Recover the amino acids of this structure.
């Protein structure tokens, strides 16, 4: 058994409203860590053989705020994996790691993986189905990209847009939180598809970036708009065919008023609601019926099987820029 420091980021207690630094703390204890699993196969509560990993990169994402409090009606059975953090234990999220030992047939020592891991240096992963093997180690693409564009973030944009928006060339696409990690990719993928794409974001710098670097046709600062319905009518006089919703709340409510008949909405996230004590109401839902809109909520965790297809799509673009 080896003696190492295993630095961990721990949730102090469940969080209400906006999280504070003090809601999390870092421990750095010297502990004996078993880098080898015992000779017999560990059957964990998930009935999967466990894997030990060394974490290399971690991604900090909005959904982590959701897991800092218990949400009525949402649990492991609805989310198909563990959901909430446990106060006193390390938080978890997406990351890139190296396998140190494994009794799982899909992994062996030395493999590089991306997926759900704990915010600590070394982790015993008891649900290895949340890990995906990185196959492209012979390319020039930095490994850290699998904690972002080549991992869950990129897959979210790809799956949300292609699987749930049924895009067609020339359609009108609106993306909120468009300068965020997911939004900026959705916009660029939609442009590749030949769509007209407008994004919303919260600063002038982000608006400039969307138009000058990410190729959006237009963009506006939602914080400077007194009436979001009027703003959307300005950019989409003929209506929105596809809305990629990252924010929910007032923006979603205004979008309903501006959707085209048979429009599609990908319910990716609702970041405007995550820190609120009480979620805001959405009042224009009847437009789902009037306009026969398809509104599909999704989680990327259900779509890992599409990751190879996503890589075939995105890697050539990335490699052309390296
Ligand atoms: N369904 C899934 O499987 C899945 C997977 C990944 C992410 N998501 C969701 O996708 C969304 C975007 O994630 P991301 O990784 O792109 O996040 P990100 O890169 O961290 O960007 C988030 C951005 O959201 C904007 N924002 C924050 N508070 C807001 C508010 N109150 N109203 C409107 N905008 C606000 C901010 O930009 P501004 O300055 O522009 O306001 C912020 O920079 C989130 O809702 C996340 O939960 C879902």
């Amino acid at each position: 058994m080896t003696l190492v420091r295993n630095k961990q980021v721990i949730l102090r207690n469940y969080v209400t409203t906006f999280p504070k630094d003090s809601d999390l703390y870092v421990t750095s204890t010297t502990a004996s860590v078993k880098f080898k699993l015992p000779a017999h196969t560990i059957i964990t509560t998930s009935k999967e053989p466990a894997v030990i990993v060394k974490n290399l990169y971690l991604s900090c994402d909005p959904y982590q705020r959701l897991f800092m409090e218990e949400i009525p009606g949402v649990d492991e059975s609805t989310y198909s994996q563990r959901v909430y953090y446990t106060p006193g234990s390390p938080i978890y999220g997406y990351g890139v790691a190296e396998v140190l030992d494994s009794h799982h047939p899909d992994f062996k020592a030395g493999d590089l993986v991306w997926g759900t891991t704990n915010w600590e240096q070394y982790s015993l992963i008891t649900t290895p189905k949340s890990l995906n093997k990185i196959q492209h180690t012979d390319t020039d693409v930095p490994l850290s990209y699998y904690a972002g564009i080549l991992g869950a973030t990129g897959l979210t944009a790809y799956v949300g847009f292609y699987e749930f928006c049924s895009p067609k060339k020339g359609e009108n696409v609106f993306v909120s939180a468009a300068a965020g990690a997911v939004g900026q990719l959705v916009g660029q993928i939609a442009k590749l598809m030949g769509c007209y794409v407008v994004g919303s974001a919260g600063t002038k710098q982000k608006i400039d970036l969307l138009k000058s670097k990410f190729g959006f046709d237009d963009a506006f600062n939602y914080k400077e708009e007194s009436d979001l319905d009027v703003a959307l009518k300005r950019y989409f006089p003929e209506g929105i065919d596809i809305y990629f919703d990252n924010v929910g709340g007032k923006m979603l409510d205004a979008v309903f008023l501006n959707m085209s008949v048979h429009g599609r909405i990908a319910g990716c996230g609702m970041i405007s609601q995550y820190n609120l004590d009480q979620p805001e109401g959405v009042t224009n839902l009847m437009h789902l019926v009037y306009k026969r809109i398809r509104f599909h909520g999704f989680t990327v965790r259900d779509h890992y099987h599409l990751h190879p297809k996503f890589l075939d799509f995105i890697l050539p673009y990335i490699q052309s820029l390296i």
The chain has a mean pLDDT of 92. The pocket of NAP is lined by residues 61-63, 153, 156, 177, 179-183, 201-203, 206, 246-247, 268-272, 298-300 (CB under 6 Å). Residues 307-321 form the longest helix (15 residues).
